[in-house]
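User: Reviewer 2 asked us to show a designed sequence for the structure in our supplementary figure. I'm pasting the structure tokens here. Could you produce the per-position amino acids so we can include them in the response letter?
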């Protein structure tokens, strides 16, 4: 093989290798994009799956106790190692329903209830956003120091179309801070929970249904 032909062959091989490397790089980028898109899709799908499962779990609950038990257990399953309590407004007072989590913080019902006045419950319930612990302090929450010093907590209002029902309190150890994604997942199911509470309350006592 003469030098000229050898040089042409070498140049051709280099061009082929260059083209192959460029193609491999494009394939790598495409694969990474596909993996990222798949991850984003799964991330968006999980809250929808949770919402569907949640609504299925509360079907057939014909009284407030069973409804709040089912709702609390589902919320606890969505927020690991958490406790769930539901505060429901009842005229000029409120009702407290506590659901034990899988890793509960031991705050007894009487102690928890004493931290919240009816006005504080109303303030949180009427709020248009998720209330962190510091927000609840500003609204008048007066906790027992031994109970609230070591927890991360948030109140998720239960109000819909002008009707105010109460709020969901979620709390767990402070070293496992509640995340925005976890709270958003729970907030997404509150419209359905409000409807269910309203329907059950109306069927039990039409005159005292939340408003």
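Assistant: Here is a per-position design you can include in the supplement:
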């Amino acid at each position: 093989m003469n030098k000229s032909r050898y040089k042409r062959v070498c140049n051709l091989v280099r061009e082929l290798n260059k083209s192959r490397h460029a193609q491999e790089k494009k394939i790598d980028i495409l694969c990474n994009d596909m993996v990222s898109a798949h991850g984003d899709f799964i991330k968006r799908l999980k809250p929808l799956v949770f919402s569907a499962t949640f609504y299925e779990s509360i079907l057939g609950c014909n009284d407030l106790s069973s409804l709040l038990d089912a709702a609390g257990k589902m919320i606890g399953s969505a927020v690991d190692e958490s406790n769930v309590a539901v505060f429901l407004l009842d005229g000029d007072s409120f009702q407290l329903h506590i659901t034990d989590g899988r890793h509960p913080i031991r705050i007894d019902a009487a102690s928890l209830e004493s931290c919240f006045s009816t006005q504080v419950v109303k303030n949180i319930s009427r709020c248009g956003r998720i209330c962190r612990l510091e927000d609840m302090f500003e609204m008048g929450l007066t906790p027992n120091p031994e109970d609230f010093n070591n927890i991360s907590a948030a109140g998720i209002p239960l109000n819909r179309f002008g009707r105010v029902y109460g709020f969901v309190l979620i709390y767990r150890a402070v070293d496992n801070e509640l995340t925005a994604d976890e709270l958003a997942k729970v907030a997404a199911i509150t419209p359905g929970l409000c409807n269910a509470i309203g329907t059950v309350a109306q069927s039990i006592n039409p005159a005292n249904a939340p408003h």
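For the response letter, you might also mention the following. The radius of gyration is 27 Å. Residues 61-208 form a domain with the Beta-Lactamase fold (CATH 3.30.450.40).
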